[in-house]
Amino acid sequence: MVVSAKNLNKRYSSGTEAIRGISFDIKKGEIYGFLGPNGAGKSTLIKMISCYFPATSGDLTVLGLNPNRKASTIKRCLGIMPQDNNLDPDLTVFENLYLYANYFNIPRKKRLERIDELLTLVGLEHKRNARVTQISGGQQRRVVLARSIINDPKILILDEPSAGLDPHSRQVVWSIIRDLNAKGRTVILTTHYMKEAEELCHRIAFVDAGKIVALDTPEGHLAANNATDLEDVYLKTMGSSLEE
Amino acid sequence: MISLRTYKKNRDAGSIDGKIRTADLCGGNSIWKDLYDSRLLWMRQLTVFRKTYKVGLVIRFFEPLLYLFAIGLGISTYVGKINGLTYIEFIAPGILITTAMWAATYETSFAIYTKIHYQRTYEAILATPMNVRSIIIGEMAWAGTKAILNMTIVMLPLALMGLFHSPYIIVAVLVGFLVGLIYSAFGIIATSFIRAMDHYGIYSTFFIMPLFMFSGVFYPIENLPGVLSFFVCLTPLYHGVEAARLLSVGDLGIMLHVVYLLVMVVLLVPLALHRISGRIVTA
Ligand SMILES: Nc1ncnc2c1ncn2[C@@H]1O[C@H](COP(=O)(O)OP(=O)(O)OP(=O)(O)O)[C@@H](O)[C@H]1O
Ligand SMILES: [Mg+2]
Q1: Do B28 and A69 touch (CB under 8 A)?
Q2: From the list A67, A88, A95, which residue is nearest B27 (CB)?
Q3: What is the pLDDT of residues A104-132, one digit of tens each?
């Protein structure tokens, strides 16, 4: 198992119980999706897997290691794309990537090669020396994706990767995800976009109010709910829980 | 509350109940690894600095001259000599050391607040093998570096004016480095309490400015009432200023001052780390 969680809980210091007893196993080479309404706890889950903060209780291992003991070692093998574009506004696109690679101790020569390669991949060679405040939101999103794979991660963790992207850019992102997956990389993602989940994910966990309410392959979900598409499954699984 | 044993058991199993401490956010790294990693944050600061430094350098060069001319020249005709020094010669070492304080204060107040709350710089860096401890140590090292740099620039015009009687004044840059580390810790501690940018006014008006005015920069502290001079003796800036003044006349008897500053560094740096880590990661 690449990621394994048993009875995981997360209570924020504010008192919010964001995750309430979640268990799951993510296999090597799998594309695993977390779907669910706003505030369900997807980003919280992602942050625990990313070694950003510890779980309140329960067991979590990433690449067989304990995040509380071996965070640096784990993070060296993770590619993390956060929900918000937190690029460094003091720097250009190139400098953002260059310094980020520096935190991974990637040698200078390799770093420069890698940056050229990635900028071509996300179609932003022409924005190389632009300040990140001077490129569009979708372009920033693509830089964040490039940044997240700069260390050639074993696990790619994407929190709403295609949020704010036009259909064209979305295709680019999907093909990058598929290519990496074809090379054996594990991908964990969250999305509000059902088509994306259907296109990419091998397994989908529906999360609601800090719990996994249904877990299956896309086809399995369709069959179990007698549904024609995932949107339908979502609506049936989640009900219309707009309480709180 | 849970017992320490349960806490350790949970932590080793991968979870932490109760208040999350700095160590819990360091993911099992040793302090040595984090010290080594902190250079990477320092390099980020250098990259940003290199884009804008020129204007800053010019400001740093002229700022002390302003103090010296406005205060020094204006007052010196009334005060005569202090311990054999003209008034301008008396205040020059203090102006030099306070440069370190200003540099560190700037780097660790607005600058860090912005990086936490607006730019989310640290959030991005935490997705790499860095952790809160290597980040904050890197910030402090950078503040210390800026202290050294600014002092060097300030020293130039003062030395050209012949205000220092001994080349030993160069050693004051190292004293200033310690002062810079101490004030970076103060700045970070202040940042950990602050809930809005405007609140820095409280810190600068009631902490930094009084320290600046009362730390023996402008007159010998023996002139102050006994109680007050006792308190001044406790401030790090005072020891920095005294050490620099001794160096400026070629006196190397600064050992006690340096020891005091070192002790302050050792006490304040962990405190600053403890305070700020919970603000960087809201867990
Ligand atoms: N730093 C925090 N401190 C306290 N509570 C938080 C924090 N971050 C999130 N929460 C709360 O935890 C719950 C889960 O939030 P989370 O961000 O994980 O949801 P999400 O599933 O990612 O939602 P979205 O689809 O909107 O991104 C919410 O109730 C949220 O208000
Ligand atoms: Mg989210």
Answers
A1: yes
A2: A67
A3: 999 999 999 999 999 999 999 999 999 99
